[in-house]
Amino acid sequence: MLNLAISVVPILLLIWMMTKRNSLPSHIALPITALMIGLLQLLYFGTDATLLSANIISGMLSAITPISIIAGAILLNRVIALSGAEAVIRQWLEGISRNQVAQLMIIGWAFAFMIEGASGFGTPAAIAAPILVGLGFNPLKVAILALVMNSVPVSFGAVGTPTWFGLAGLGLDEAALLEAGRQSALLHAIAAFIIPVIALKFVVSWQAIRRNLLFIQLSIVSCTLPYWLFAQWNYEFPSLVGGAIGLSLSILLARMNVGLETPEPSMHAKSEKIPFGTVIKAMSPTLMLIGILIVTRIQQLGIKAMLNDSTPMLNLNLGFADLSISQALIFKLSNILGTETSWAYKTLYVPALIPFLLVVLISIPVLGMSGQLAKQAFTETASRIKIPFIALVGALIMVKFMMVGDENSPIMTTGQAFADLMGANWQWVASYLGALGAFFSGSATVSNLTFGGIQQTIAHTVGLPETTILALQSVGASMGNMVCINNIIAVSTILGIANKEGYIIKRTVVPMMIYGVIVGLVSAFI
Prior knowledge:
The chain is mainly alpha-helical. The protein is built from 25 helices and four strands.
């Protein structure tokens, strides 16, 4: 019992620090929490100081992955904005529909759904949220909407990585993995009737939602129906296919004004129609981004294997660790400080250099940007990522410390306490354990890797269907994206929002809790 209290107190303190009236920003609260957990590991759990030091090194280096993705996303956003392409896209989208609900559903829901299916890694919010802000929506409200909306497709995000990789170590055969995917898709699809509506409420009024409810539900179903159907035989492409079909149908429905109230005339009402070629040129960075993501993520094309080639090209002993560099430029440190702790960075596969930087370098001449404007884009990007980098270092060291101790680690102790408390009623709260993992780690995939084993053990112990509990874990990890600190930092940084992480968590935790209730109820009938 004392171990549980010791394990939980730092996280409760972190939540309090970030949500109290005069909340601390994440770049202060997270390092404080990491320091506290480190001291507890050292003084209470008796963890070896060398092992903790190795995890500090690994945690600091691990921040390179998310910060490089965030930097790439910001850079592309600044290029699109400074070149004038964003203004063209905004005018085109206003031409499809000036109805705010339609714009939020097309961009914040369907477009982000498709991007999540192709890439994951926070790219949906990185691409969709700035477009919505460009249309005149409040950045803070858009950040909350983007976080809540980007939950349904996550189990099959980045071409299914949270499912096929996140549950890979559980010894499931192909049929069991597919069944877990099917059930995840069904749980998400049913919750989707409600969750995007709640997301909209953060930006527009209930009256506007009621008046446009038919369009909202048609847009939701246009994504989730093909998503669920595709999941019956594949766990890689449901979100990508569902998002592509849903985006096309949502635009078509909006053009035909199906289920939408007619918006009030605006000062832009008489804006000229933009030539199709101009729109394609303005959209070319986004289209390139999607194209490159798809090509580099589909296993059968062979490029994914090339970008993940771990064949050693160079091996060096650095004294404190062994460095290896593979043919695909995967940098890996092993045996850090003589421990089993390691770190790796997939230079060509992490969506930073490819596709973000690559698309930026191509887009600068395509969009006709001057050298001065291009330099401005890089300068603004550098200035925006300094503080988030500190926050992410704190978050990742905290996560590493929480996981030290294997079966007796604070994170495992917390998870097991849930199971002991609930017993055979576990399925009602199983999704919240997945969400807890995403909150800690910043990744649905890591949550599945971390808690999948616990969920499987609990299912066997209390006699619940294994695939149902694993589906709830996967869905929970996805809904945890709403409160995941890494995602909140990322979208806030991209939109230029400072010190509002606690404010955002206090609001996104409500739809996350509702999500868990819905899937818990539905799981009893599948």
